[in-house]
Amino acid sequence: MTIEPAGEMPISGNDDVVRVRQLVRTAAASAGFSLVDQTKIVTAASELARNTLVHGGGGSVGIDQTVGDRGKHGLRIVFTDRGPGIPDLEQALVEGWSSGNGLGLGLSGTRRLVDEFSLESEPGEGTTVTVVKWIR
Amino acid sequence: MSHLLRSRRDAVLGRWVELVTEGTRGRMTEGEVRSELTELYGLVEGALTDPGGTTAGELRAALADISRSRARQGFSPTETAVAVFALKRAVHENLDGTGGDAAYADFIDFSAYIDELGLATFETYANAREQVIADQAEQLLELSTPVVKLWDGILGVPLVGTLDSARTQVVMETMLQLLADTGSRYAVIDITGVPAVDTEVAQHLLKTVMAARLMGAECVISGIRPQIAHTIAALGIEFGDIVTKSSLADALAYAMRGSGLRVLSGTDA
Which residues are the signal sequence here (chain A) (predicted)? Predict the structure, then answer.
């Protein structure tokens, strides 16, 4: 599996959420995603970038083009923060459960927008969310 | 150095004007350049004689003016800075080479001072640009949230770009006020220009619709493109009983039907 770096940037304000969206849209378009899949990955990135900002107190995002087994291409996005972490991972992924006053669809919905989703979190240490979407 | 600037004033200034005029490539006449540089020359001379005095401040103000006016005339910031740096060459060509080491040291100091002035023009240019960008961002915020009347009793709210909390607030206030002012029963919120609808955007939309509903008006959300529909369905966002349409035309037709209006084709009324 080879990885080509496409970009990395910090997330520290609302403007950065917009920039993450633009960065992901550009990366997805140049990788050759269909319009529907572009919109899905951009929406997923927007959701996770806002989580990084609101719950993680800011962090960073890395975007890579990646090649999986059987040679399929895709885009991998990694969000990292050094925030308070998520105490109960199971609960965080339950549909309709919200720690704030949102719709409670952020993480559970995002998981349905991408092909691979992994959530690692250590209370007090921070959270890392990795998502991958393959080109169909 | 200030002694040299005074004693060989005509030669140094003349050469500076010549160098700068060459660089403007016909965008300014020699006369314009001369009057501009003569003022600067006097101020540089004064600032060097009395480094702590008020002339240094005046010099910077004059440079800022020149930087701004040149920016308006279409000069790049580099060209403006190079024009200032040209003074070094003019002075250097007028040194007679008899001063020895002391003159070298003197020229290096003078050179550093002119570099500083050149960079100051750069900074002014950058600041002016920043100001323009900030103004535009503000204008965009105002421009991008219009509420228009589509028909008697039907308002249109075309949304373009990112829908964040601040924009939603502006849209909601304008729309609710206009609903009250015009007594409209329908508001069509068109999201054709919104590139991505995530849970935050959806939540803002839902809140706006709820607020309108409290005032007795019905909101129709239009401009839901296929990729947005896919994404909203995958995210699991429920729009409940809110009417959504794929195009603004459909939404307008729906609102007109709801208002008891019929659209007839043909010429005879």
Answer: none
